[in-house]
Amino acid sequence: MLKSARKQEKDPEGRMPLAAHLRELRNRLLKSVLAIMVITVIAMWQYDAIAHFVTGPVIESVGCTKGATGPRDHPCAQVVANGLLAPFTIMLKLSLTTGVVAASPVWLYQLWAFLAPGLHRHEKKYALSFVGAGVPLFLGGAYLAYAVLPTTAAALVGLTPSDWSNLFPADEFFDIVTRMVLVFGVAFELPLLLVLLNFGGVLTGRRIMSWWRFMVLGITVFAALATPTGDPLTMGLLAAPIVVLYFGAVGICLFNDRRRKIGNPDAGLSDDEASELDLTPGEVGEIEPVASGRMLPEQASGEAGERDAGRRDGYDDFT
C-alpha cells in the first residue's frame, strides 16, 4: 500500500522529513507513469492511424509514386520495416511516444505538485499557470519538430544521386521522430523553468539576462545536434522560437523583479547583505511622569531607616 506524505500533518513552511520526500516522489512518479501507460495502451489500438499520421507528411514530401515508370524528376524514398520483430518494436516505440506527449498535462502537474510544498503560500497560486503554460509549450515544441520533418527529409533525400534508390528503415525513421519530438518539446520548457526559478527567488532577471550570449550560442548548438540535417534553414526554424521564448522569459523575470522590489525594497539583497537603515533622529514626545511605589517589605513597613534617607521618590539622588 502506498502511504501518501500529504496525509500526514502538514508543516506550515512546507518542511518534511527525508522519508516523506521520498514517498512523495514515489507517488508522483507512479501517477505519471500510470497516466503514460494508460495512453500508451490506447495508442496501441490506434497504432495504424497514428503511424499514418506520423509518416504521412514525409511520404507526401519524398515518397515514391506507386506504379510510376521512367526517370524521376527528384529523388524519392520508401518506408520499409526490416526484420520480423520490426513492426512490433516500432509499435511499442510509437505508442510510448504518443503516451508521453499526450500525458504531458499529468506529469507536468505532478512535477509542480512535488515542488510546490517548498514554496511559500503566495507562490503556490502559480500552479495552474505553470501547467497551463507548460502543456502548450511542450506540445508546441513537439509539433514544430513534427512540422519540419518533411523539410528535413527532402533535404536529406535530395543528396541522393539520380541513379540510386532510397529506403527508409521504419525503426530508424521513428527513432528520429521520437528524438526530435521529445527533445524539442522539453527544450520549449526552458523559458518556463527560468521563470519558475525567478518566481521562487533563485535567479534574478538581470542574472538571466547576463547569460544571453551563452544561451543563444547554446540553443544554436543544441538545434544543430538535435536535427538530423545540418542545413541552416532547419536549424533556424528550430532555434529561432526557443531564442524568442528565452527573451520573453527574461522580460517576465525583469517585470517580476520590479514588482517584487516595489512591494519589498530589500527583495534584491543577498542573504549576507545588510539592508539600509534610517538612522535619522526623530522627535521625542512629551515626557509623562511615572509614579513609583515602595515594593520591598522593609520599605512598606517603614523599616528602611537611614538607608532610605538618600532616596527621593524611590530613586537615588544622582539619578
From TrEMBL:
UniProt KW Ribonucleoprotein keyword: no
Residues forming coiled coils: none
One of the GO biological process terms: intracellular protein transmembrane transport
Membrane topology: Multi-pass membrane protein
Annotated keywords: Cell membrane, Membrane, Protein transport, Translocation, Transmembrane, Transmembrane helix, Transport
Entry's localization field: Cell membrane; Membrane
Transmembrane segments: 29-47, 94-115, 127-156, 176-199, 211-229, 235-255
UniProt region (Disordered), positions on chain: 288-319
GO MF, one annotated term: proton motive force dependent protein transmembrane transporter activity
Gene Ontology CC entries for this record: TAT protein transport complex
Basic and acidic residues composition-biased segments: 304-319
InterPro entries attached to this UniProt entry: TatC (IPR002033)
NCBIfam families according to UniProt: tatC
PANTHER family: SEC-INDEPENDENT PROTEIN TRANSLOCASE PROTEIN TATC (PTHR30371), SEC-INDEPENDENT PROTEIN TRANSLOCASE PROTEIN TATC, CHLOROPLASTIC-RELATED (PTHR30371:SF0)
Quaternary structure and partners: The Tat system comprises two distinct complexes: a TatABC complex, containing multiple copies of TatA, TatB and TatC subunits, and a separate TatA complex, containing only TatA subunits. Substrates initially bind to the TatABC complex, which probably triggers association of the separate TatA complex to form the active translocon.
Function: Part of the twin-arginine translocation (Tat) system that transports large folded proteins containing a characteristic twin-arginine motif in their signal peptide across membranes. Together with TatB, TatC is part of a receptor directly interacting with Tat signal peptides.
Similarity remark: Belongs to the TatC family.
Designated name of the protein: Sec-independent protein translocase protein TatC
Originating species: Streptomyces glebosus
Phylogenetic lineage: Bacteria, Bacillati, Actinomycetota, Actinomycetes, Kitasatosporales
Gene: tatC
